[in-house]
Write a structure and sequence with these properties.
CATH class of the domain at 149-285: Mainly Alpha
Number of strands: 6
Shape: elongated
Distance between the termini: 10 Å
Radius of gyration: 33 Å
Helix content: 55-70%
Strand content: 5-15%
Number of helices: 8
Oligomer: single chain
Strand order of the largest sheet: 1-2-4-3
Protein backbone atom coordinates (compact mmCIF):
# COMPACT_ATOMS: atom_id res chain seq x y z
CA UNK A 1 0.00 0.00 0.00
CA UNK A 2 1.10 3.54 -0.72
CA UNK A 3 2.16 5.36 2.44
CA UNK A 4 2.32 9.06 3.19
CA UNK A 5 5.24 10.48 5.14
CA UNK A 6 3.00 12.79 7.17
CA UNK A 7 1.52 11.30 10.35
CA UNK A 8 1.28 11.61 14.14
CA UNK A 9 0.72 9.18 16.98
CA UNK A 10 0.57 9.44 20.78
CA UNK A 11 0.43 6.58 23.28
CA UNK A 12 0.43 6.62 27.09
CA UNK A 13 0.71 3.86 29.67
CA UNK A 14 0.43 3.96 33.48
CA UNK A 15 2.37 1.60 35.77
CA UNK A 16 3.02 1.28 39.50
CA UNK A 17 6.38 2.98 39.04
CA UNK A 18 5.12 5.87 36.90
CA UNK A 19 3.59 7.07 33.64
CA UNK A 20 5.23 7.01 30.23
CA UNK A 21 3.99 8.61 27.03
CA UNK A 22 5.36 8.63 23.50
CA UNK A 23 4.71 11.18 20.77
CA UNK A 24 5.91 10.28 17.27
CA UNK A 25 5.38 12.57 14.30
CA UNK A 26 6.77 12.39 10.78
CA UNK A 27 6.94 14.74 7.79
CA UNK A 28 8.32 14.38 4.29
CA UNK A 29 12.08 14.04 3.89
CA UNK A 30 14.28 12.63 1.17
CA UNK A 31 15.81 10.07 3.53
CA UNK A 32 14.95 8.58 6.92
CA UNK A 33 15.94 11.18 9.51
CA UNK A 34 15.01 10.28 13.12
CA UNK A 35 15.29 12.68 16.07
CA UNK A 36 14.83 11.69 19.72
CA UNK A 37 14.07 13.60 22.92
CA UNK A 38 14.52 11.20 25.82
CA UNK A 39 14.79 11.42 29.63
CA UNK A 40 18.33 10.80 30.82
CA UNK A 41 17.53 7.41 32.38
CA UNK A 42 16.27 6.05 29.02
CA UNK A 43 18.89 7.57 26.72
CA UNK A 44 20.79 4.29 26.45
CA UNK A 45 17.82 2.83 24.55
CA UNK A 46 18.09 5.32 21.67
CA UNK A 47 20.04 2.91 19.46
CA UNK A 48 17.32 0.25 19.74
CA UNK A 49 14.65 2.87 18.95
CA UNK A 50 16.55 3.89 15.81
CA UNK A 51 16.80 0.24 14.81
CA UNK A 52 13.00 -0.08 15.10
CA UNK A 53 12.50 2.90 12.79
CA UNK A 54 15.01 1.58 10.23
CA UNK A 55 13.13 -1.71 10.06
CA UNK A 56 9.66 -0.16 9.74
CA UNK A 57 10.21 3.04 7.76
CA UNK A 58 12.15 4.06 4.67
CA UNK A 59 11.79 7.83 4.40
CA UNK A 60 10.67 10.79 6.44
CA UNK A 61 11.82 13.13 9.18
CA UNK A 62 10.61 11.40 12.36
CA UNK A 63 10.53 13.23 15.69
CA UNK A 64 10.11 11.00 18.76
CA UNK A 65 9.59 12.32 22.27
CA UNK A 66 9.33 10.23 25.43
CA UNK A 67 7.89 11.69 28.63
CA UNK A 68 8.32 9.92 31.97
CA UNK A 69 6.61 10.84 35.23
CA UNK A 70 7.83 8.78 38.16
CA UNK A 71 5.59 7.95 41.09
CA UNK A 72 6.56 9.92 44.21
CA UNK A 73 8.31 7.71 46.72
CA UNK A 74 10.10 8.10 50.02
CA UNK A 75 13.63 9.37 49.83
CA UNK A 76 14.82 6.17 51.53
CA UNK A 77 14.20 4.30 48.30
CA UNK A 78 16.85 6.43 46.58
CA UNK A 79 20.52 5.49 46.60
CA UNK A 80 23.60 7.13 45.14
CA UNK A 81 25.18 5.65 42.06
CA UNK A 82 28.82 5.44 43.22
CA UNK A 83 30.38 5.23 39.75
CA UNK A 84 28.60 8.32 38.46
CA UNK A 85 29.23 10.19 41.72
CA UNK A 86 32.97 9.43 41.55
CA UNK A 87 33.10 10.51 37.90
CA UNK A 88 31.42 13.80 38.81
CA UNK A 89 33.81 14.36 41.73
CA UNK A 90 36.81 13.74 39.48
CA UNK A 91 35.48 16.20 36.90
CA UNK A 92 34.91 18.91 39.54
CA UNK A 93 38.41 18.34 40.98
CA UNK A 94 40.00 18.54 37.52
CA UNK A 95 38.19 21.79 36.76
CA UNK A 96 39.55 23.16 40.04
CA UNK A 97 43.11 22.68 38.78
CA UNK A 98 42.35 24.69 35.66
CA UNK A 99 40.29 27.55 37.04
CA UNK A 100 40.65 29.50 40.29
CA UNK A 101 37.67 30.30 42.46
CA UNK A 102 35.41 27.44 41.36
CA UNK A 103 32.93 26.66 44.12
CA UNK A 104 32.32 23.10 45.18
CA UNK A 105 28.72 22.09 44.31
CA UNK A 106 26.33 21.76 47.20
CA UNK A 107 25.00 18.26 48.08
CA UNK A 108 21.59 19.20 46.65
CA UNK A 109 23.16 20.30 43.37
CA UNK A 110 25.12 17.07 43.18
CA UNK A 111 22.00 14.99 43.82
CA UNK A 112 20.22 16.81 40.98
CA UNK A 113 22.92 15.85 38.49
CA UNK A 114 21.65 13.20 35.98
CA UNK A 115 22.63 9.69 36.94
CA UNK A 116 23.72 10.40 40.54
CA UNK A 117 20.56 9.02 42.15
CA UNK A 118 19.13 5.64 41.35
CA UNK A 119 15.81 4.27 42.52
CA UNK A 120 16.45 0.80 43.86
CA UNK A 121 12.78 0.11 44.38
CA UNK A 122 12.04 0.20 40.69
CA UNK A 123 12.49 -2.70 38.37
CA UNK A 124 14.73 -1.00 35.81
CA UNK A 125 14.45 -3.81 33.27
CA UNK A 126 10.66 -3.78 33.46
CA UNK A 127 10.65 -0.02 32.89
CA UNK A 128 12.88 -0.29 29.83
CA UNK A 129 10.83 -3.15 28.42
CA UNK A 130 7.61 -1.15 28.85
CA UNK A 131 9.15 1.90 27.15
CA UNK A 132 10.31 -0.19 24.16
CA UNK A 133 6.95 -1.94 23.82
CA UNK A 134 5.04 1.34 23.95
CA UNK A 135 7.41 2.84 21.36
CA UNK A 136 6.69 -0.04 18.98
CA UNK A 137 2.97 0.40 19.52
CA UNK A 138 3.21 4.14 18.87
CA UNK A 139 5.23 3.68 15.69
CA UNK A 140 2.79 1.03 14.43
CA UNK A 141 -0.11 3.40 14.99
CA UNK A 142 1.74 6.13 13.13
CA UNK A 143 2.37 3.74 10.23
CA UNK A 144 -1.35 2.99 10.03
CA UNK A 145 -2.03 6.71 9.81
CA UNK A 146 0.60 7.02 7.07
CA UNK A 147 -1.17 4.27 5.14
CA UNK A 148 -4.57 5.96 5.52
CA UNK A 149 -3.07 9.23 4.33
CA UNK A 150 -1.47 7.31 1.46
CA UNK A 151 -4.84 5.97 0.32
CA UNK A 152 -6.17 9.51 0.12
CA UNK A 153 -3.13 10.65 -1.86
CA UNK A 154 -3.64 7.80 -4.32
CA UNK A 155 -7.25 8.87 -4.88
CA UNK A 156 -6.14 12.44 -5.61
CA UNK A 157 -3.44 11.27 -8.02
CA UNK A 158 -5.83 8.87 -9.77
CA UNK A 159 -8.26 11.74 -10.36
CA UNK A 160 -5.50 13.81 -11.97
CA UNK A 161 -4.37 10.86 -14.11
CA UNK A 162 -7.92 10.38 -15.38
CA UNK A 163 -8.09 14.06 -16.31
CA UNK A 164 -4.74 13.82 -18.13
CA UNK A 165 -5.91 10.79 -20.12
CA UNK A 166 -9.08 12.65 -21.08
CA UNK A 167 -7.13 15.69 -22.32
CA UNK A 168 -4.74 13.51 -24.31
CA UNK A 169 -7.64 11.59 -25.89
CA UNK A 170 -9.32 14.87 -26.82
CA UNK A 171 -6.19 16.26 -28.47
CA UNK A 172 -5.64 12.98 -30.33
CA UNK A 173 -9.18 13.09 -31.67
CA UNK A 174 -8.84 16.68 -32.85
CA UNK A 175 -5.30 16.37 -34.22
CA UNK A 176 -6.17 15.24 -37.81
CA UNK A 177 -8.72 18.04 -38.10
CA UNK A 178 -6.22 20.60 -36.78
CA UNK A 179 -3.52 19.52 -39.25
CA UNK A 180 -5.99 19.51 -42.18
CA UNK A 181 -7.25 22.96 -41.22
CA UNK A 182 -3.73 24.36 -41.04
CA UNK A 183 -2.89 22.83 -44.42
CA UNK A 184 -5.99 24.40 -45.97
CA UNK A 185 -5.19 27.71 -44.29
CA UNK A 186 -1.74 27.70 -45.88
CA UNK A 187 -3.19 26.93 -49.31
CA UNK A 188 -5.81 29.68 -48.93
CA UNK A 189 -3.15 32.24 -48.04
CA UNK A 190 -1.12 31.27 -51.09
CA UNK A 191 -4.22 31.52 -53.29
CA UNK A 192 -5.13 34.93 -51.86
CA UNK A 193 -1.65 36.17 -52.52
CA UNK A 194 -1.79 34.67 -56.00
CA UNK A 195 1.68 33.45 -55.36
CA UNK A 196 3.27 31.57 -58.15
CA UNK A 197 5.34 29.09 -56.23
CA UNK A 198 6.95 25.88 -57.22
CA UNK A 199 4.49 23.07 -56.40
CA UNK A 200 7.39 21.13 -54.87
CA UNK A 201 8.10 24.07 -52.57
CA UNK A 202 4.45 24.24 -51.54
CA UNK A 203 4.41 20.54 -50.81
CA UNK A 204 7.58 20.85 -48.75
CA UNK A 205 6.03 23.66 -46.68
CA UNK A 206 2.93 21.56 -46.07
CA UNK A 207 5.05 18.58 -44.96
CA UNK A 208 7.06 20.86 -42.63
CA UNK A 209 3.85 22.23 -41.13
CA UNK A 210 2.49 18.73 -40.61
CA UNK A 211 5.69 17.62 -38.92
CA UNK A 212 5.63 20.59 -36.55
CA UNK A 213 1.99 20.07 -35.69
CA UNK A 214 2.26 16.30 -35.26
CA UNK A 215 2.41 15.64 -31.52
CA UNK A 216 1.22 12.04 -31.68
CA UNK A 217 4.52 10.80 -30.26
CA UNK A 218 4.29 13.14 -27.27
CA UNK A 219 0.68 12.12 -26.66
CA UNK A 220 1.61 8.43 -26.75
CA UNK A 221 4.39 9.00 -24.24
CA UNK A 222 2.02 10.88 -21.93
CA UNK A 223 -0.29 7.86 -21.89
CA UNK A 224 2.67 5.53 -21.31
CA UNK A 225 3.76 7.61 -18.32
CA UNK A 226 0.28 7.73 -16.78
CA UNK A 227 0.09 3.93 -17.06
CA UNK A 228 3.44 3.63 -15.31
CA UNK A 229 2.32 5.97 -12.52
CA UNK A 230 -0.72 3.75 -11.93
CA UNK A 231 1.50 0.67 -11.91
CA UNK A 232 3.84 2.24 -9.37
CA UNK A 233 0.94 3.17 -7.09
CA UNK A 234 0.19 -0.56 -6.76
CA UNK A 235 3.77 -1.52 -5.84
CA UNK A 236 4.92 -2.40 -2.34
CA UNK A 237 7.59 -0.41 -0.55
CA UNK A 238 8.76 3.17 -1.09
CA UNK A 239 7.73 4.61 -4.47
CA UNK A 240 7.96 8.37 -3.91
CA UNK A 241 11.24 8.91 -5.76
CA UNK A 242 10.13 6.91 -8.79
CA UNK A 243 6.86 8.83 -8.93
CA UNK A 244 8.76 12.11 -8.69
CA UNK A 245 10.88 11.06 -11.69
CA UNK A 246 7.74 10.21 -13.66
CA UNK A 247 6.35 13.68 -12.90
CA UNK A 248 9.46 15.14 -14.52
CA UNK A 249 8.91 13.02 -17.62
CA UNK A 250 5.23 13.97 -17.83
CA UNK A 251 6.15 17.63 -17.53
CA UNK A 252 8.75 17.26 -20.27
CA UNK A 253 6.13 15.90 -22.71
CA UNK A 254 3.65 18.63 -21.75
CA UNK A 255 6.28 21.29 -22.46
CA UNK A 256 7.04 19.73 -25.86
CA UNK A 257 3.33 19.66 -26.65
CA UNK A 258 3.14 23.36 -25.80
CA UNK A 259 6.15 24.25 -27.95
CA UNK A 260 4.69 22.40 -30.96
CA UNK A 261 1.27 23.93 -30.58
CA UNK A 262 -0.04 25.73 -33.68
CA UNK A 263 -3.55 26.43 -32.46
CA UNK A 264 -5.05 27.82 -29.27
CA UNK A 265 -6.78 24.55 -28.41
CA UNK A 266 -3.58 22.54 -28.05
CA UNK A 267 -1.89 25.39 -26.16
CA UNK A 268 -4.72 25.38 -23.62
CA UNK A 269 -4.53 21.61 -23.36
CA UNK A 270 -0.79 21.78 -22.67
CA UNK A 271 -1.38 24.35 -19.92
CA UNK A 272 -4.07 22.19 -18.33
CA UNK A 273 -1.73 19.21 -18.43
CA UNK A 274 1.04 21.12 -16.68
CA UNK A 275 -1.37 22.27 -13.96
CA UNK A 276 -2.52 18.68 -13.32
CA UNK A 277 1.07 17.39 -13.30
CA UNK A 278 2.11 20.04 -10.79
CA UNK A 279 -0.84 19.15 -8.56
CA UNK A 280 0.27 15.51 -8.61
CA UNK A 281 3.89 16.44 -7.96
CA UNK A 282 2.91 18.40 -4.83
CA UNK A 283 1.07 15.37 -3.45
CA UNK A 284 3.86 12.97 -4.39
CA UNK A 285 6.32 14.95 -2.25
CA UNK A 286 4.52 13.40 0.75
CA UNK A 287 4.64 9.80 -0.51
CA UNK A 288 7.23 7.51 1.06
Amino acid sequence: MTASMTAFSRQEAVFDWGTISWEVRSVNQRYLEPHFRLPENFRELEFSFRDVLRKKLNRGKVECQLRFQAVDKAATSLTINPDNAQALANAVQELGTWFDGIKTPSPLQILQWPGILSDTSDDAEAMKKAVVELFNKTVDEMIQMRLREGEQLVEIIEQRLTSIDAIVADVKEKLPTIIAAQKQNLLDKLADAKAELDPMRVEAEIVLLAQKADVAEELDRLITHTKEVRRQLKQKGPIGRRLDFLMQELNREANTLSSKSIVVETTQSAVELKVLIEQMREQIQNIE
